[in-house]
Design goal:
This protein is an alpha/beta fold. It is built from 9 helices and 20 strands. Strands 1, 2, 3, 17, 18, 19 and 20 form a 7-stranded mixed sheet that branches. It has a 7-stranded mixed sheet with strand order 6-7-8-9-14-16-15. The relative contact order is 0.14. It has 2 domains: 35 residues, no CATH class; 337 residues, Metallo-dependent phosphatases (Purple Acid Phosphatase, chain A, domain 2). The longest helix is centred in the N-terminal third of the chain and has 21 residues.
Length: 380
């Protein structure tokens, strides 16, 4: 662009300089306002728990698996910085429990998917205890809805001595085998409070609900704060998931690069989110926090249990973020960070992506700051 300095069309150099200075200054202010803040405790004496949403879309594509590894390595690097005590995952550890034929919905076989999930959690072995719920995708069913899973092949108590250290209760899967699908970890003396972290299988069977009710009612846990981790519980509209739990089985045909699925099959003696609330959570006096996934998005609600204590219930599932459920990057690396303040009542919830945080170019996108993703809850 050329400027004319004749008498009639003179553009003041002073004005131009002033304008450039204004633009540069404004830009620097905008940059300062978007300056990346590394995750840190708001109170130096807090402790943290990390919530991992459904990981199925990371493991089903070979190209996405390094993102899950990055998430786990970030957790490892911040154990001391954030005083992390526990990592929980809300299920769907794989996309398919039984699959050897590739199709449009992933290029990894079942074996490769389970190995990828196991390898990622292995980064935390010997460093942190973790508890992983089982999701619907972690099961295969027959035409009668009877379920099986390879979960117990890859997630065992023996693989991480810190799981064994805190493991105090467990029940069995549908084949009667003791597994971590239905289990509980106990941690004592967290700001003077004892905690019990209990997980149940997807759409827990009546026998599992009975087992969990018996655990939380035990005299030794009556004064514990109980956290329930289960897969299917809330939807993104903050409502309990209702209706008869069901799942599909894979037909033996691949048509136009799409493995065929059956119609939904009812799971016998299974419980929906609404039933979990009515039969397990609400009647208990000590369950005060429920964490779930399954439905893409975020959800939250608070209700009173039988002891008139507030139960905070949270959904977080990022599987459709980062490009979508079928062909995206798996979920943009999002994690939920829960900081438990030393007052024993306050929990600050934040949503953070180590994937975005790794580069200065994407760091401005590393936090979700809206009210559905950053909020404070208080225990009674």
């Amino acid at each position: 662009m050329m400027f004319s300095f004749d008498d009639n069309k003179c553009i003041s150099v002073k004005k131009i300089v002033s304008y450039v200075v204004f633009v540069l200054f404004s830009g620097s202010v905008a940059i300062a306002q978007q300056e990346y803040q590394k995750p840190a405790l708001e109170h130096r004496d807090s402790w943290s728990m990390v919530m991992i949403p459904d990981i199925q879309n990371y493991v089903k594509w070979g190209r996405n698996q390094p993102i899950l590894d990055l998430m786990m390595r970030w957790i490892d690097e911040n154990i001391d910085t954030l005083n992390i005590k526990l990592v929980v995952c809300v299920g769907d550890l794989v996309q398919n429990n039984e699959k050897i034929t590739n199709d449009y919905d992933g290029n990894q076989t079942t074996q490769q998917q389970w190995e990828a999930a196991s390898r990622a959690f292995g980064i935390l072995d010997g460093k942190l205890p973790y508890i992983a719920a089982s999701g619907n995708h972690d099961y295969s069913i027959d035409r009668h809805g009877n379920r099986t899973s390879r979960y117990a092949e890859f997630f065992t108590a023996e693989r991480n001595h810190l799981i064994q250290k805190f493991l105090v209760q467990n029940s069995t899967n549908e084949q009667g085998r003791p597994t971590l699908e239905n289990s509980a970890l106990e941690m004592k003396g967290l700001h003077g409070r004892d905690y019990l972290f209990i997980t149940t299988e997807f759409a827990p069977r009546d026998t599992v609900i009975t087992w969990a009710k018996g655990v939380v009612a035990m005299e030794q846990y009556k004064d514990h704060r109980v956290v329930l981790i289960t897969h299917s519980y809330l939807n993104a509209k903050d409502h309990y998931i209702s209706g008869e739990p069901s799942w599909i089985y894979w037909e033996p045909y691949n048509i136009a690069n799409q493995i065929q699925k059956s119609a939904k099959v009812k799971l016998p003696n299974a419980n929906s989110g609404e039933q979990i609330w009515k039969t397990l959570v609400q009647p208990a006096s000590n369950i005060e926090l429920v964490l779930a996934g399954h439905v893409p998005g975020e959800g939250y609600r608070a209700d009173k249990n039988s002891a008139s204590r507030t139960v905070h219930q949270m959904l977080f599932d990022a599987q459709s973020m980062g490009g979508g459920h079928r062909n995206g990057n798996g979920g943009d690396g999002w994690l939920r960070l829960l900081e438990f303040f030393p007052d024993g009542q306050t929990v600050k919830v934040k949503t953070f992506s180590p994937l975005f945080a790794i580069s200065p170019t994407s760091q401005p996108n590393a936090w979700k700051n809206d009210s559905r993703n950053e909020f404070t809850l208080k225990f009674d």
